Inverse folding.
């Protein structure tokens, strides 16, 4: 009986194991908690408490929080320590002003160059399922994916890079907005008309819909989140 040997060609698709530093793993966990709204703006980050919850030492917690400070999600308050950076009405307005510019540009570029938009339906269906399931977190993820895909379909590298620089704040605001305005069916239902206008090559209607959509989100009041924490 001959021995079986897995040669190089048989192993070609097997990827090497990545050793992700603990601080990076912790930073990603905390980042997801912040942008999903689980850790709300103003929440204090206590190293000892987080270390106990995650069953790690305080050193990687401290390093992870430093990463989040670089992301702009955490800030240091004198004599109080680290906290999730609060959102201000101005920051929400400025973020969504830029988002509107980016998404209107994406819509115009998609129609100008005839880029296919079928991929957007995937995220519409994901939002519909999340609404039926009452899964707010899943809906927020699908919502963000819809708008990220819109930017990607436009096929403009600098536009995508600019969007990525706003991504964390956009996702966070979406998640917090969905907490305050929890009608998931309304949120999901706002997106299919945008896709239909793109498929119909109706520039005016597509620009109108995406503009109204982003402006309605800009009405979100960050103070309402503070009220929820009270």
């Amino acid at each position: 009986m001959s021995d079986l040997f897995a040669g190089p060609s048989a192993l070609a698709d097997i990827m090497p194991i990545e050793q992700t530093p603990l601080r990076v793993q912790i930073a990603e966990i905390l980042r997801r908690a912040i942008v999903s709204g689980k850790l709300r703006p103003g929440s204090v980050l206590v190293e000892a408490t987080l270390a106990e919850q995650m069953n790690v030492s305080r050193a990687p917690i401290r390093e992870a929080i430093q990463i989040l400070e670089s992301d702009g999600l955490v800030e240091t308050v004198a004599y109080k320590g680290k906290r999730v950076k609060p959102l201000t009405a101005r920051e929400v307005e400025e973020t969504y002003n830029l988002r509107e510019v980016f998404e209107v540009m994406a819509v115009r570029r998609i129609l100008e160059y005839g880029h296919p938009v079928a991929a957007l339906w995937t995220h519409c269906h994901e939002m519909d399922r999340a609404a039926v399931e009452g899964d707010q977190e899943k809906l927020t993820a699908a919502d963000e994916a819809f708008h990220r895909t819109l930017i990607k379909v436009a096929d403009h590298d600098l536009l995508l890079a600019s969007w990525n620089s706003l991504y964390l704040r956009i996702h966070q605001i979406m998640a917090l907005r969905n907490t305050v305005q929890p009608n998931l069916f309304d949120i999901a239902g706002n997106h299919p008309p945008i896709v239909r206008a793109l498929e119909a090559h109706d520039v005016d209607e597509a620009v109108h819909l995406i503009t109204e959509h982003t402006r309605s989100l800009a009405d979100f009041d960050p103070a309402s989140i503070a009220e929820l924490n009270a």
